[in-house]
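Budget justification, computational time. The allocation requested in the original proposal was used primarily to generate structure tokens for proteins on the priority list. As evidence of use, we reproduce two of the resulting records. The first is shown immediately below.
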Amino acid sequence: MASLNVSLPDTMRSWIDAQVKGGDFSNASDYIRDLIRMDQRKREALKIAVLEGLNSGTSPRQIEDIVKDIKRKK
């Protein structure tokens, strides 16, 4: 497993320590790995959503009509 040294402000280090003390993570590395996994999932989901949008084609509706419909539904 690769190692990475990161400099953090004291407040961020305190936050990480609090997450570990809370019992959800065994150590700081475990917490950081979890953050990275969450970011990877979010970015992948965003890529998929963008591709689905691009592949869905174009709408014959005007932006103003779409906005009016959204406001009407609220």
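The second record produced under the same allocation is shown here.
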Amino acid sequence: MDRWTAYCALIFLLPLPFGLDTAWAWNLAGAAVFSLLALELNALCSKQRSLALPTLPLPVALKRARISLLLIWGVQLYCLIQWLLWSITPHDSLLSLQKGLTYAGAYTLTLLLVNSRQRLNQLMWVIVLTASLQAMYGAFMTLTGIEYGFFAEKEKFKGVATGTYLNRNHLAGLLEMSIAVGIGLLLAKPTIYSGSVRQKLRTFIRLLLSNKVILRLLLAVLVIALVLTRSRMGNTAFFASLMVAGAIALLLMRNKTTATTILLGSLLVIDIAIVGAFFGVDKVAERLQNTSSQTESRDEVTRDTFDIFLEQPLTGIGAGTFTHAYPSLKSSDITSTAYYNNAHNDYVQFLAEFGLPATAALAFIVLWSLWQSIVTMRVRNSHLYQGAGFTVTMAIVAIGIHSIVDFNLQIPANAMIFVILLALAPIARWTPHSTSGRRRRSARTE
């Protein structure tokens, strides 16, 4: 098995064992990431020696993302210092550091390996397929009432889709990002009807025989599963991010066609009106209507976590220490007996654990990726790269909304897929169309 095949297999398997939210699973994933990273760097060094190159032959996207690379690895160095000097529970900070190093390694590995249009297309398909497996499994378990997770009967969240995750909201987080990837793939292959009636009929028949129909069916399955999670913010984040990213795409995307507008509109109309009506979007709406400050204590937990941040705003209390820090610091007005191992708000949890400077560095990476993805939709002519730009934009907006009331970025599989999608922003922005294309452009400038 070559490095690229192994990388795709790793991405496909990431969500299976509880979303990696168990020590043995994410340790194995970390070992796989760093093994592949070492092999890829060794291959680049060998290529440098064989061709007598002055520097490593690095992809252009990695060179353009060097500031983000420095920041994501710099945050890990900061977490190392936290662990050594002032973390309130060093063991938890060490575990968090191991996860952070894995995310940084996955970000670097993606920038190294995804160096062509073909690989970008394949990676996007792998993400859609692994989410589709989760969606079909979760929907089957919910609709049949069998209710098994990962080789074990579910203890919680019966009656709603969880896939092999422990929590429905985290399956929803995976589905949000994966639907964004699927829509990006659809945009990468626009269907243009032109010419005579016979030519249009041929175009339609080719469409029916293409994998675009399969992709559209998979997207419907993903939306069905998202609705079946009954995740309030998961569904809200999906529809909101689709509208935001769709508006940006229609406003900025070059070479857009009428089919692009119809596609984005149909995703909202068909998925809400038809798929949602049959699989219970009304139950999601009912959960939203019944939500109030009296029935939820997440806002109080967010408030308390922000107070923890204010106590040590620069240094933070230590990565991964919320679980042990919060029980002794929560306010008396929280009467819920629920055990909070996360803040249900990624923003304040990052601030409390990492401190303001490190959180700002992570925020810069996300915002820089968002900007690069928006620029990609505006300046690239390739439909694939434009579609990837749409994917990153929608995924960032979706997770950004969902993170206000949940902790998807504390779940290793979701965090790693999110980091990989962030890496797609400079890849879509800067990867050349082809080697021959680079040669033709060089010839024109000489």
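A brief technical remark on that second record: Residues 333 and 362 are 32 Å apart (CA to CA).
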